[in-house]
Amino acid sequence: MRLSLLMLLLIGANVAVAQTKPLTAAPANPATKVASAAPGGQAATLYTGDVTPLLATAGGKSVGDISPGTPVNVMGTSGKFSQVTVQGWSTQKGPSQVYSAVGQRINMVSLSDAKTASRTVGKTTTDDYKAVWENVTVTGWVTSTSLMNDQKTIWSHASALYSKSCSACHAAHQPTDHTANEWIGVLKGMTPRTSLTKDQVALILKYLQTSAKK
To answer: Region 132-141: what's the mean pLDDT?
Structure first.
């Protein structure tokens, strides 16, 4: 009787632990891990580990994608979702694409429709080619498990993937061999000869552009 009672108590304890332990899906990108928010309730600056769907509401429809390694400010959470903002630059003629800087085609966010997304416009400036750029802030929701604390871990994974996939035919180009804008065309010409997925190409491109010749 004592043994049976002990077994029942142990079983009950295991069930209680199992019920309180959070469940998380294994990420496709080994660099991806759950990130923690900043202390004191302040907005934390975290990073997207992969191509990450941007949602209109927590668990709602997608309004675009955030590219890998993009810094986001976490404004709050709801269940397994985090509300984030992304700040960058768009041209007036291409408001659906948000880039990291004026004249630099380093993609941060691709919106399905800029008119339906939560997008606010700040100051404007004109580049050397007379194109007008707008400083924009995009707000939306992402799954919390898609965010990371350390951007260096993302780039380390991207670097290893690039070296493995793009050195089979020839020595891989160094990131500083090209400018950020040049890398778009260079990588586009290389990837058809690899087995890289679309999301992997996006990760590698972002890494190369971030580390590119200035």
So the answer is: 98
